[in-house]
Records
---
Amino acid sequence: PLADGFPTPNPAQLAKIEETAMGTVPNGPLPKKLDPDSITALQLVAFNEMMEVALFNSLVTNITTNAKGYSDFQGETKDYVLKVFKTVLAQEEIHAISANAALKSAGAPTIAPCGSYHFPATTFEEGVLFADEVTALVLGVLQDVASTFAKSDDARGLVGLVASVVGQEGEQRGYYRRVGKHVPSSLPFGTQANVQLAWNALQQFVSDCPSAKDIKLKAGEPVTVVFPPKESVTATTVLSFKANTTNPPPLAGTDKNQDKNKHPPAPGASSSYFVTYINQLNTPVTVPAKINNPPHGAKPAPGTVEIMAPFPLHEHKLNGLTLALVGTQKGPFATLEDAVKGSVAGPGL
C-alpha cells in the first residue's frame, strides 16, 4: 500500500487523492453483472492501472529523493515535474480504484497490486520514455476493451468510461513526447492492441501477482527488443525470445531433431521465424528473420533465440508505437487477431 492508502483508501484518504488528481471517481451507476469477456477486459485494465501506479510512484520517489540519474529534467524545473507526476500518479490511482469498483459491483474478482514491479529506467529521461511506451500500449488495448464492452448489453455503459480514459491518457502522452523533444501527437491513428498482447507485454515488468490467477488469460513468451531500429542506419531490429524447448520450430538448414542449444545455427543464417509488425490501424506487416550475430561474441542464454529482421520504417511509415510479434508463419495476416494467433512470442515494444 502507498502512504495515501491506495489501493484501499478510506474516505478521507480518497478525498486527498481526488484533490491531487483534480477530479473524482465517477459517481454514476455501475454494472450489476458482466459477461466473461468483459470481466477479463476490465480486469486487464485494472491490472495495468496498478502497474502504472507503481511506475509513477517510482518516478515521483526518484525525483523527490534526488536519485542518481534524476536531476536532469530536460529543461523543466524539479518543482514542475514533481507536480506533473504527482498529479498523474493520483489520476492513475483513480483509474485503478474505478476499475475495481466496477468489478466489485458486477460480483467479479477485483485486482490487487503485484508484489514487485521492475522498470527498465535508470534516468528521468528513460523513465518518461518508458511511461510513454506503456501509455501508448494502454491506448492500443483500450480500443479492444471498448469494442468488447460495446458487444454486451451489460457492459455497454462502460464504453463512455473507456473513451474518457483514452482522452486523459492521450493528454499524458503529449507531455511525455514533449520531454523527449518529439511532437506531442505521434500518429494520426494510435497503434491497435488487444487484451492478450497487453497481458503478454506486462509480464516483463511484474512478479508475484496474486490476482493473476483470476484473469482468464494465458501469458505468452515475451520478446525483448535488444537493438531498436534507427533512422540513421539501415533499418533493422534485433529481438530475443525463448523458444519452445519441448517442440521448437525447425530452423532452416538444420535437422529438426538437432539440439539447438548445443548446435546453434550460424549467425546470419536464415531461420523459420518471421517478425510481424503491428502499427496504427493497418494490416500487419510480416518480414523474414535471420539468426543474429550477437555483438562482442556474446551468446544468448540457453533456450533463447536472437534474431534480426528488417524494419520497413519508411515503406510502411512505422512511426510511433510498433508492436513486434515473432512467429513461424510468413503471413500475410489480414488482422491483428490473425497475427496474434500465428505468433509464438511477443509483443516487443
---
Amino acid sequence: MAAHAVEALRPIQRRLEEEGVGVHTFPIVPAKSRKAERWGVSPALAAWVIRNATSYNIVHLHGAWGLPSVAAAVGARRVGAASVMSPHESLTAYDVYRPGNYFRILSKIGLKAFYLQRLALIVFASELEARDTLGGATRPEAVVVHHPLGSAFEAAPAPVSRSAGPLVVGYLGRLHPKKNLEALIAAVAKASEEAKLLIAGTGDKGYVDKLARLAVKVGMAERMEWLGFVPGDQRWPFFDGLDIFAMPSHYEGFGMAGAEAMARGVPTIVSQSTGLGEIIQRHASGLIAAPTTDGFAEAIKSLDRDRGFLEALKVRSLSIARLELSMEQYAEKVVPYYKGLVGCELC
C-alpha cells in the first residue's frame, strides 16, 4: 500500500483500538504492486476471512471487486452468516461496463450476478447508485443510507464571512478523467478573472500534465495551487480555506469529498450525476450544475455575484450535513436491518 495511504489509515486504526475494536493487518502480495493493492490481493487476509467466518452473524463487505470481499462472501455463505454489502459504486452499470479490458468486464458481470444471488442486503449511498445497480430487480433487499461522516464535524469552525475579495474554489480527490477536472479549470477561468483554484489529490502523471497544460492555456496557471495528496485530518484545514467546493464528475455514486466540505460549512457545487446531489436538492443546501464548463462557470459566477446567498449556504450546508450525515443517523437506519437479519434473540 502507498505510504500516504498507510499514514492516512493509522489515525483510524488507533481510534478503533481505543474503542476496543480489534484491528488485524495483512500484507498485499506482491508488495508495492499497484494492481495488487487495487484488488486487495492478500492471500493471508482471504484465508483469515474464510477461516473466521464462523465467528460472525453478519459479514459486511465494502466494495465488490477486491479479493477480501469475494472471500468474505464465500466464507459467510459456507457457514450460513448473512452477507451485507456497501458497494461504493462498484456494482453500478457505470463501473461494470466501463470501457477497457474485455475480460475485466466479463469478470465483473459474473461477480455482480454472484453477489446479487447471495447478498442478504445492499446498503446504497444514494438513490442514483441503487437505481444504476439494480434497475428493476427486486432481489436482494436494499436500503439507501447516505455515507456517514465522523471527524469532519469535530471542531468545525463557524463559517467565515467574506463579503468581498476573490473566491477560493477547491477540489479534493483522485485526479482522473472521470472527475472531469478539465471542465472545472476552464469554468473557474470563465467565471472570474480573480478567483483562485486549489486542487488536492494525485493521479496519473500523463493526465496531471494534461491538466497543467490546460491551466496555462486558459490563463489559470498563476491562480492555481496543486497541493498533491492531503492526508487524514489535514483535509479539514483545506476545506476551511475554501469559499466553494466543486465536484464536476461525470459520475459519483455519492461524493464523499463534497459531503465533507458541507460538514465544514463550505457551499458545494456538484454535477447532475452525483449521489450527493440528492441531499443538496432536497434541502437547497448547494448548487447542482451540468458537468460542463458553462454549467459550472455559471454556478460559480452566481455565488460570486450574490455573496449574501453564498454566506447563507455556508450555514445551511453545515446544518444539513449534521442532519443527514451523522454516524447516529447511519446507525439508526442500518441497525434495524442488522437486527432483522440475525433474529430478535440477538436484538
